[in-house]
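go over this chain:
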Amino acid sequence: MSTFATDLDTTGLKDEADRLFRRKRLMNFGLPALILLYLVYVFFAFDVPGLAERASLEKAQTLISDSYSYKTHVTRDNRSGEVSVAIEGERKGRYDPGTGPAWVSLGADTVIDLEDGYVVTFGPENFVSFEIPGYGLVTAQPTRSGGVNPVFPAGDLPEWISTSKNRLDIRTEAGRLTVTRNRTEVFRYFFGWELFWFTLDSPYHGQNPGALMGLAFSGEAGEIWKDFWNNAMWRHKDVAWAIFETILMAFLGTFGAAIVALPLAFLAARNFTLLMPLRFAARRLFDFLRGVDALIWTIILARAFGPGPLTGALAILLTDTGTFGKIFSEALENVDEKQIEGVSSTGAKPLQRYRFGVIPQITPVLLSQLLYFLESNTRSATIIGAITGGGIGLMLTQAIITQKDWEEVTYYIVLILLMVFFMDWLSGWLRKRLITGDEGGH
């Protein structure tokens, strides 16, 4: 009988071990197989092959080069024959009539020396020629009715030349030429952000740092700052105000939500509100407010109140009221009742019990969450500002939509990153000073 029982125990243990190993094998092989299946589904559902096919390496290179360089446009209006030179093709960056950089020779024939043997010539009657080392001379003469009429050296066209009846596009390492019936244009890229400090009409344009320092110490510091601050192309004054609006949206939304959420949190805490229907209503209100994303609130409020930074601040306030309400109510439910009883024993009134027995206990949690959300909302305010029409987010969106001056996009992104880094440092410093009492605040 004992041997039979031992055999049963051994069989049971063996069956249990087999079941355990089967579960292990299922987890070790089944889960990776499910993940692989999901990735295969994503690969085709999101049309990854089509995305790779549509990707343009040429456009990517142009985008990257635009982010750290600028281009000067030499443009001839084929209807009037007028030739203009402008940085980034903007009116605010246009050279005075009859003037241009040293590599552009204006006259009866406009000669554009792109260096290394690349020379573009604007001749009479809309004629244009492009001397390309190693390839030859390309000419074109656009007319109102007959197209651009290009002439190429013998042989197959290289990939960097595209042509049709009404358009000629030549892209070389020295520069780019485009010809249409209405306009002939040459683009030449240079490293850096031209006119970032001063525009062409400023007397300080082209001055080296040493000369500027000398002028500043000689009494022209105010004028130098005025010309920089009011730069019509880079709009430093408008950018600074947009950064301020973004931080203000985050500040008003975050601290406004904390002010609204704190008294409501007492209604949601079971140790402060004994009526279950009241607690239930407060908690569902928090769920509703944080369940709707801030971007959705932004769209709704923009329709109700119109665009503007205040609309963005209200959107952050509504979402964070729900989040803070939940966090604060949970902190209230974990307070030490003995401290409240100690304050009550002194004859304190209910409001005094909350002020001296409850608030000091939850203050570290409140401040920690408040500072974290302030930092996070600074990033969110950038996106919200693009919808509500305020802050640096709007300027970034406008620069992206134009698809022209990507160095401005880079400038705004750099400023956004610096703003986020600063808010991260500031929140960390305040957290150490206010919560831990650390005077260093590294």
The longest helix spans residues 2-45. The mean pLDDT is 84. The two ends are 75 Å apart (CA to CA).
